[in-house]
Amino acid sequence: MKAGLAVLLGGLLLIWPAFVNRYPIIFSDTGAFLDQTVTPLMIWDKPWIYGPFAWIFHQHLTLWGVVVAQGLIVSHLLWLLARTLGLASPGRHLAICLALAALTAAPWSAALVMPDIMTPAAVVSAGLLGWGWDRLGRWERGWLLILGCVATASHLSNLPVIFALTVLAGLLRTGWASVARVAAPLLGAVALLLATNLVGHGRLSISPYGSTFFLARLIADGPAARTIAAECPASGWYLCAFADRLPTNSDDFLWRPDSPVNRGLDGQAIFLGGVILAPEARAIIATTLRREPLSVLADMARNFLGQLRRSQVGDTLSRHDVGEGVRGVLARGFPASEVARFDNSLQMQDRLKPIGRALNPLYSAVLILATPLALLGWWRAHRERDARRLGLLLCLLVGLAGNALATGALSMPHHRYQARIVWLLPLAAILFAPRYRRGESPVTPVANSSCASAVR
Length: 456
Fold this sequence. Notes:
Distance between the termini: 7 Å
Structural class: mainly alpha
Radius of gyration: 22 Å
Number of strands: 0
Number of domains: 2
Helix content: 55-70%
Order of helices and strands: HHHHHHHHHHHHHHHHHHHHHHH
């Protein structure tokens, strides 16, 4: 009972920005995920995963259910992680949640109605499956497998992250069974994406139109723009007509109303331009990779490093970041009282962003202090040949770095992308740097626990 209450209170601590805001935090893309069940609509540029996940908890009544669920999921994962390390107690759990809530960006992702928090959830789930299997009950294992699959599939950048953890398990020689358990969420996510895209888009593909996104990145970096200039007009590509005025920002290329993706030469708006451009994008990408493979790799490395440096909160917190579309979706699918709560939030009054910005110096200082502590934890686990601790610690660190590579190199560096997971570094410092007394919180395998008793 005390453990369950600690997980509940920890989950509420981890969504404190929503309480300050008087409403869950919203981003412009939130409307698209809500539209996946309100219309319902298969959005071309987003997996049909997070929208249905959110629906389970909002039921077209209130978005509060979504962020409360996200807070509880993170709190429960933290409990299982600490218990696997032999460190679980209600008091310590609340202390860990309070530290993460006060000193890291974790609450800003947990309180956001977006799949951002699913990235660290996928990493921790895979880590527990790989290095904590023997200390999990039957229902806990099943829960982590389901959560890991859904969390991994919620954002396409999570796929290479969990693949990197699978490679890590192989390099650490944990055994084929452990490698398979780490890979299970990845395989499940691939199956989910293939099935939903086949039903929704009629294509058996992980990302039917993802080539348009990668092309945007390659154009912004330069290699694809040079390919278009060199191969046109002989190639006959649609983008040849825009070769001398391609946007140099990938977001502008994808979303600006007057970009070649969204407006043709005749000045007419193009409906689903990203879908239409996808086949040509694949051809340009293939040609670019043949022409300038080293340039592409160098740009990916630069963007990876750029993403590692960007982890502050604030780029989702203003009224401008919400845009105009979310309110319309709420008005179509939710009660008028929910729309009123949305309108009354600090975010929609442009009063939330200064609060988040003011905390960034603290978050940065904590990351600087946490880095040597996490490395100290790695050194101790390596010296003591503690395979469990070493595996879990490296899982957190590789997940953090893998996220920066996947988002920065394949999309575009944004603070939100790394802020959603960078708090795993202070978590690693908390769990692995101190010398806890051996046997302080004895852990024994739990063979037949239920979901209700998973936190005991």
